[in-house]
Amino acid sequence: MKVLPIIILIFFLKGMAMAQDIVKAEYFIDDDAGFGQNVDIPIPSNLLGPNFELNFTIDLNNVNPGLHHLYIRVKDDQDFWSLYTYTTLFVVEDVPVPSIDALEYFFDADPGFGNGIQVNITGNETDNTIIFDANLDDLAPGTHFMYIRARSAEGEWSLLSSRLIQVLEDMEQVNIVRLEYFFEGNGFTSQTYSQPIQDPSPVVEFDFQANASELTNGETYTLSVWAIDDEERKSLVNTISFLYSEVVPIVLSVEKQNESCEGLGDGQLTANATGGEGTLLYSIDGTNFSANNVFPNLTSGTYTVTVKGDVPDYSVAEEATVEADHENPEVPNITELTGNDGSIILESTEAFTYQWFLNDQPISGASSRQYQPQESGEYQVSVANEGGCSALSEKHTVSIDVTAIYQQADTKLIIYPNPVVDELIIESKSGINLLGAEIELRTISGKLLLSGKAKTNVMKVDFSPYPKGMYQLIIITDQLVLQKKLLMN
Question: Ranges for the Secretion system C-terminal sorting domain (predicted)?
Fold first, then answer.
């Protein structure tokens, strides 16, 4: 693509009258197509006025190589066109940019092609810019000429590019200990203020709040600032001009609510801000702002809450750390023990409270450190500490021959009548001791209706409160486990 960057100073004068605002500009090459019919030159809205400087690009793709005339003219807001201004162009054919396969430089005296200091390049370079560090170690302090040339992939060397450089003696390392600054504007010069550097070093970069107590709202000032090193030597002065606008400061405080347990994610930060201008917006990541000043569902960590109003480039931030009020207990282990009667007993690592699970479902009433499984499946135990924080064990698979146990138990107990009318009687035989046995009555779906321990070797269970249907009776002693289905008429 062939383009020509142009910078022009556009102005419009119409006789002795006041100059009007320029609203349109156009250009043509060689031949005029008529007012408003040539190539439009876009004018940004912030440049409208009787005169301004404008950068734009001329498209030369359809212009033949050779000598040409470029004409430019403008139109004002009263619909008057100016006289045109013109310049002469010489258009040449596109020349391919050669690939660069070598780059070298030298100082003062030419050592010959290929004998300069070689620059490491990544490959066949066609970019116009290659950045590298020049080695000045062997140069004496003083003025020198630096020369650079490149070699194309075809082995042709370019012309030399040169630059005058000044080599200075090595200076001792110094630390910047403070900044000093003052303001000037409209015949006013402030006192000189000092800003200490907390951690002195050769290079400092930090934000600080300048003392603006002497400045007047709405006035333009120039800030001059310089550095002072540990030998009380002064650096060069940097200056910047600005329009001083007083801002109502934002005062921010952050309330925190810790998460109750590690990783639970119930922590919260609440930002309380006053002052500022316009609507205050809040953010916890410095990027996404909203009017919501509450940040819930936080885990332990340090967060930065930022508040801003309608003043550009002005915000206030404060760090807050969310902690966990209680640590989580260690993940419990399940140990499989064997009872006196050969039954399986599961035991958890010691904890404050326990809850046993079978196939991911909580087992009602199973809240002791030990649990005697009554059927095959995958068992887990959830333990909690005194702070209420919990941890869940890995799954422990248990296989039980339930049929054999139940058949054996059924021969040692007498349970009647079945079907039940109003009352069920349970008696032991074959020397089985029912005293202290755990007895549960459940619906077929597993809902617990009755739970207790036997106080005698003959037990009576009142069925009168229950509707007709099927029920499960579960009896657990230190000698047997029984599960029996009952029908209520």
Answer: 415-486
What phi-psi label fits residue 214: left (phi over 0), alpha (psi between -120 and 50 degrees) or beta?
alpha
Supply the pLDDT for residue 171.
Answer: 67
CB 148 within 8 A of CB 104: yes
- What tokens does 353 get? 């409270």
Which of 436, 435, 432 lies closest to 412 in space, CA to CA?
A: 432
Distance CA 301, CA 21 (A): 58
Model confidence pLDDT, tens digit, residues 27-45: 999 999 999 999 999 888 7
pLDDT (mean) for 91-104: 81
| pLDDT on residue 404 | 41
CB 38 within 8 A of CB 32: yes
Structure tokens at 51: 């005169």
Question: How far is Cα 291 from Cα 359, in angstroms, rounded to an integer?
Answer: 46
Nearest alpha-carbon partner for 256 in 328, 327, 324: 324
Q: Which of 161-165, 286-290, 342-346, 348-352 has the lowest mean pLDDT?
A: 342-346
- 412 alpha carbon, distance to own chain's centre: 68
Could you give the count of Cα atoms lying within 13 Å of 430 in the half-sphere of its Cβ? 9
CA distance to 77, 189, 362, 425, per residue, from 380 (Å): 84, 78, 9, 35
| Main-chain dihedrals φ then ψ at residue 447, nearest 5 degrees | -70, 130
406: pLDDT strictly greater than 70: no
Q: Which residues, in sequence order, are CB contacts of 467 under 8 Å at separation 6+?
A: 488
Q: What does the pLDDT read at residue 128?
A: 60
Whether the pLDDT of residue 7 is over 70: the answer is no
Predicted TM-score (pTM) of this structure: 0.40
Residue 26, pLDDT score: 93
Distance of alpha carbon 436 from its chain centroid, rounded? 61
Q: Distance (Å, rounded) from C-alpha 17 to C-alpha 50?
A: 12
Instruction: Please classify residue 404 by burial: count the beta carbons closer than 10 Å to its beta carbon, then call 0-12 exposed, 13-18 middle and 19+ buried.
Output: exposed
- 3-state class (DSSP) for residue 45: helix
* Rounded alpha-carbon distances, angstroms, from residue 284 to 108, 202, 264, 270: 57, 33, 19, 10
Please give the angle made by the CA atoms of 342, 344 and 347, to the nearest 5 degrees.
Answer: 135
Rounded Cα–Cα distance for residues 346 and 401 (Å): 16
